[in-house]
Amino acid sequence: MEVASQRRDAGRPRGTAVENAVLDATLEELSIHGLDGLSVARVAEAAEVNKTSIYRRWPTKEDLIAAALGRAFGEAAQSMPDTGSLAGDLETALRHLEGQLSTPSGRALALVSMSVESAAAVSRICAAQQDLTRNAALRLIERASKRGEWDTDRTPAPDAVFAMMAGALMHRVLLEKQPVTPEWAKTVITVITRGLRREDGDGTTK
Length: 206
Description:
Elements: H1 2-9, H2 16-33, H3 40-47, H4 51-57, H5 61-76, H6 86-100, H7 104-113, H8 119-146, H9 159-175, H10 182-196
Helix pairs in contact: 2-3, 2-5, 2-7, 5-8, 6-10
């Protein structure tokens, strides 16, 4: 009986593998059904674990979603390398976001963020995780400011800038159903970076 039991469990994930399998399945579930339609039973089936294994780690559905989105935010925070220029940094981030939209985590984030009914819940879930992305963005801004590419006196808060970039991307991909071509990306980044540069005394940007 013991041998048979071991064989039945042989293919099931263990430890950290369980958590990764469950969080992957949660993101996939979110990308298909959204926040309100998420089913822990379907997540458990996809991850090949019992529901009790999920609830033991994440007592509520909100805890589970927060963990899944938190991991996605953490991965996104690694997407802002130092390319040597603000335009290069923003284009790299834009390309990463484009790639993310084709993954379960990206589709989940996009679908959940566009749900009016879920807006309040998403705000509570993502508040702490957003600090990871914000910290990476602040490092990007600090570098750009030192190079004279970002006038922090005129644009002290980065939220609107990154919202414009993300909003343009989501509109292009999700609503227009158009590819993100190099020409389109360059246009978006050029418009944004021109508005962020310091002005000379005559009102022209440097």
